[in-house]
Amino acid sequence: MSLITSPRRYSLLLHSLVLSLLLSYSSVHVDGKKEKETLHRLPITGQADLVFKVGDNPCKVLKKYCKSLQPRFTYETCFSQLHPVAIQQLSQLWEKVRERLKVDETFFIDCEPIKYIGSSNGFSPGISVTAAPTTLNNGGSTATDTRNSSGIISEMLTYLKRAMAMDADALQTFNTRRNELKLTDSERYELYRKALLLLPNNLFVVDQFGLALMYIDYEAPARKLFSNAVSRGMWGNPLQRPVSKYVPGLTSLPWHDKTNYPFITRLESGYQDIKDELLSNLKERRHLFTEEAENLHVGGDWTELRLKSSGLGFLKHTEYFPKTMRHIENCGQDFTSIKFSAIQPGTHIRTHTGPTNERLRVHLTLIHNGGARIRVGTEWHTWEEGKAIIFDDSWEHEVIHTGDSIRAVLILDIWHPELPPSQRIVH
């Protein structure tokens, strides 16, 4: 038997829940004892209200409530229906209720606790930890006793709190520092675990905490976190998680058919010229190519050279690529950013997502002798020299290179074709 037995009853229940979004700070006395203040009341059709009070752990309240409805309703049915609604409503009231609840990050992961057991995988189900270990792998290195991880996390949280107060400089500093510090996996986990409790509705924070869980081989709760985020409207698909801006309504496909984009044929026709200029500059001006800054790869090496940057336009390095620029201009296409990207054998670009679903990404393959492959969504593809691929990088993606020589591509971003011209604003 289900808690909601028909579409009509389901609609009535949600209607009553939405209408009941209210705060009550009443306190009453029962038998001379002062009752805890009610923070939020969630009326349930045909059942007693689900009530959250000051000092409550929301997970324990939900579990206790669902157990009280047995055997009329199964615990699993009750929890699966009420937990997403509780997350949605409490997160809407987060600034008012967060400090008055005993809540931790597991509230957003189906209330399943996390425990570090000292294994190579890092974490497994158990008791919730208050601090992650300091020896988890990060790009082949481990944290050392001399690294002040707690100080790093405190510093980053300070910038984040200032950014919450609309301090634009603090936000920029946060983004700069997170790249400079090259956070270990344990630091990443601890930072975004705490950040989630500050900003449970922030696309970037939710995605980063989920990735932190995945990077320590704790994928199941990460998937629950992403599914719960979708259920409360943050994204449209658990595998498509743009971290800065999500535009609902745009056709969402991880991989696109390049025959629908005529400019790609013109781009491919310039493959040899573009490859020759890349090889020449790799030989004569290797210093122009910089390491990937976002700490996303493990092993190997990942470098890039930007010709056009979103928000900044064309950069001075274009003077070293005259033929490339001519072929790009002949495409007759508005590219929002353009760069060369090269990875060496042994490189694993870990699972991540792009900033927005407003754009699509094109790879023109310049050098590839096999061994490298890319997953977007759930499908793996590879590269072929002289040919292009096109995909939506707001979908989860990763790259693994097990070959024996460099793989290099020219990356060009275009607007999603369904995005109205009036909304095509580079951020």
UniProtKB/TrEMBL annotation:
<dbReference type="GO" id="GO:0062101">
    <property type="term" value="F:peptidyl-aspartic acid 3-dioxygenase activity"/>
</dbReference>
<keyword id="KW-0732">Signal</keyword>
<dbReference type="GO" id="GO:0005783">
    <property type="term" value="C:endoplasmic reticulum"/>
</dbReference>
<dbReference type="InterPro" id="IPR027443">
    <property type="entry name" value="IPNS-like_sf"/>
</dbReference>
<dbReference type="InterPro" id="IPR039038">
    <property type="entry name" value="ASPH"/>
</dbReference>
<comment type="similarity">
    <text>Belongs to the aspartyl/asparaginyl beta-hydroxylase family.</text>
</comment>
<feature type="signal peptide">
    <location>
        <begin position="1"/>
        <end position="32"/>
    </location>
</feature>
<protein>
    <recommendedName>
        <fullName>Aspartyl/asparaginy/proline hydroxylase domain-containing protein</fullName>
    </recommendedName>
</protein>
<feature type="domain" description="Aspartyl/asparaginy/proline hydroxylase">
    <location>
        <begin position="269"/>
        <end position="417"/>
    </location>
</feature>
<dbReference type="Pfam" id="PF05118">
    <property type="entry name" value="Asp_Arg_Hydrox"/>
</dbReference>
<dbReference type="InterPro" id="IPR007803">
    <property type="entry name" value="Asp/Arg/Pro-Hydrxlase"/>
</dbReference>
